[in-house]
Structure formats: structure tokens, C-alpha cells
Amino acid sequence: MLLLLYHFVFSFISSVSFAILCDVPKKTLVTGGVIGAIGWCGYWEMWSHGQSVFMASLVCSLLLANISQICAIKFKMPLTVYFIPGLVPVVPGVTIYDAFRTLLLDEYSNSAHIFLNSFYGAVGLAVGIIIADSLFRVIIGPLLHKKGRI
């Protein structure tokens, strides 16, 4: 439980820091940070319990995209001020760096494995975003608008 709190706090800081760098409105910083922390914790929990990088990234992006869309409608702000900072903790940048580092050290099989995992993570994020957007536009959005909750 303490480890999950650790991940939550540092992914929150990561999301808020990137949001500040991107100059998003100050009133969206906390919400964007919480969205990023939820997304990372979802990814980390799935990955630490034996799920593949693809599945963990897919579920993480589904969480991020749906929560961001709900917050964007509820607070009447663009979707990107919530989604982009929330996506920062799960982008496989460090993994790609590690893949290039091992490639330059002539560890070709290890590098190929790391590149493949990075690719799986990026594809999982992209597929999750597409699925979440489609589901929200077709099912969730109209239901929320019809019930007057958003």
C-alpha cells in the first residue's frame, strides 16, 4: 500500500510539472495531476501483477482518456489540458532511451527486446485512446448528457 502511495505521489508530481511546462490553466493542475496519477497507478498495478506491457498500457489509456473527457466536459475546458499531462508518466521515453543505450553497447538481442516492449506500450496507449474516444462518443457521452450529469 505504501508503494502504491509512492507511485501516486511521484506520478502526480510528474503530471503537474509537465502541465506547468505546457502552461495549462492553473485551475486544471490538480485535476490533471490526479488523472496522471490514476493512469500511472493503473498501469503499474496491472504490470506488477503479471500483465503484459500492451495490456497495462491499454487499460491505462482507457482510464486516462475517459476520466479526461469527463473532466473536460464537467469543467468546460479542452480535453488536452487534462489528457496530455496525464499521459506523461506512462509514455515509454525512458524505455526507448534504454533500448538505444543497449543498442550502442552492442547488446543487440537485449536492445531488440526493449524496443519491442516500447513499441507494445506505445501501441497499447494508442489503441486505448482510440477505443476510449469511440466508446465515449457513441455510448458514454450521450448517456451522461441525457441524464444531465455533465
UniProtKB/TrEMBL annotation:
Compartments it resides in: Cell membrane
Family indicated by similarity: Belongs to the ThrE exporter (TC 2.A.79) family.
Name of this protein: Threonine/Serine exporter ThrE domain-containing protein
GO biological process per UniProt: succinate transport
GO cellular component: plasma membrane
Keywords for this protein: Cell inner membrane, Cell membrane, Membrane, Transmembrane, Transmembrane helix
Record PANTHER family: SUCCINATE TRANSPORTER SUBUNIT YJJB-RELATED (PTHR34390:SF1), UPF0442 PROTEIN YJJB-RELATED (PTHR34390)
Residues covered by the Threonine/Serine exporter ThrE domain: 8-134
Membrane topology: Multi-pass membrane protein
Species lineage: Bacteria, Bacillati, Bacillota, Bacilli, Bacillales
Bilayer-spanning residue ranges: 53-72, 79-99, 119-140
UniProt-listed Pfam families: ThrE_2 (PF12821)
Domain of life: Bacteria
Keyword Cell inner membrane appears in the UniProt entry: yes
Cross-referenced InterPro entries: ThrE_2, ThrE_Dicarb/AminoAcid_Exp
